[in-house]
């Protein structure tokens, strides 16, 4: 026990504090911070002319040495160029409070006057100038930013229509024309020529107004921090000198005494390595997870809840000394795995999942099962939830990066309830890693072919979509397979009942006699007189017929074994095949699971192409793009590895289950067959036949099994079952006391 506890403590300490590793010279994390990323983006024509004149008058300097003040002045010039664009009058329809970090207008009120500089800049946004009254100076100032297209309407068309209506009400005669004097159509001055926007100003607009960011701030490329890392590097120091392109020392920021036991930044658990492939380099060996023994608990604050036991199984270290210590004797049994068991409720899993997606934004984590508000203590639901949580944790711990996350170590290793309550709020409050995650990714230099990366992602998308469609079809077919097992169970049971009815003359309630009709209400004695059974309950009209007694007993034994075979089929469909049916959920939706990775990959490739454009090269941005692409390619390789494991385990598991079923059926059928062979057959004549336990079921046979329990829906299922809505609807029906009245409300819950 002391050895096991020391091993557990060593493992947890290794995960929490990290293990010192030697420097790896062929790994780098791209550029952590840079202020020169904007130097290679194209500028508007006027800005290019002004900048060319300025450069001609000044000595040649390195563009990477531009200061922040020079960038700010340059940005102001570009914004002024944008403000000079001709605008179209508009008026705000609704109030809008945007986010300044995304260059959105921050204080738009309904009715404000606007000038639309660019109606469509992408993804439903417009570039708009807002006229704001300056209360202090009594003047009007303008503010340029982004506004959703649906938040305003153009007013110039309305002004022309109103002017035409006013002019038509007071027309003046004219010899040459009947056009109203005040109409715009009488103007002889040509309208100003508005130059067409060809889109060439958009890169400069993004550079100056948006800082090069994407217009869709809800995309995974933005929310994961990949875009911020590609454009600006990491905002925090990850090395003693983060302003240069340096390889980081792996033990530089490992803290021996982290505050409150948590490492929000730095530490070996925050650093991730990509090796050739690209593929993630694992730091911790894989281990197994069991979620078991659910129990109902009660709390005065939160009410009743279900507590699950979570056991981590770590393989014991092998004996490196070899067989010399055993002196030729039989080697001892392999050491049992080291176990750590903790108790967690569903809200604790929510804490774990929330912290993981914040600290590991660049990887594809499995979705957490949905929360259930009604029917939470139903036995079938508790068992289904237990299986879902076990599959969720198993998928998390087999990911080579998430496996050593500090919050996962805390979740699986904190056995003290007091320590858990003290620490988990701090993990829940950890800020998103953002660009820091990608800044702590180390990879070999020049290990990525961008052409291959572009081709791979297209094939990966097609493959995952095809896998999703195929598995969804397989899930439906597997439900038919389970139903076929239920039908097989019903057939075996019906056969058993029929044989038993034959040798006992008791009619089966679900069948009608096809031969000569007999009086069904006769007493048993009357049947014996008629000759169906003798005094020994043998299937014979002769008394003391040993041969018929042996045959009757052997056939009765066969009917009982067939009933057992029917039970095997029923249990196989409801329990064994249900496990496989549930497991298919985990591989049913690879496309939406990896959609964020694919989006980040494609967006980074686009940035990489911009950074390597001839005449506008930006090596630092290109290096950071390579870091993000190494991350996404490693995730794609992770899916490839996990797909092999998943479908191999699913197929082998299904075959093993079917083999076990038919082996058990074969054993029972052989047992029934041996009953007809000596010496067992000879011993059957030693005593009268006793009635079978299934004879009482002939009047009410079990031929209508309960409906099959279906797997709980996956989060990504397009048309999932809604047990919460059904439970609420049933509750309304109970309160109203009428299922008819409850059905009126059913449409609102579905």
From TrEMBL:
Single GO MF annotation: phosphatidylinositol binding
Residue ranges, annotated region (Disordered): 165-193, 511-530
Tree of life domain: Eukaryota
Species name: Cristinia sonorae
Signal peptide limits: none
Domain PX: 286-418
Keywords assigned: SH3 domain
Pfam families membership: BAR_3_WASP_bdg, PX
Name used for this protein in its record: PX-domain-containing protein
GO cellular component, one term: plasma membrane
Domain SH3 positions: 85-157
GO biological process, one term: endocytosis
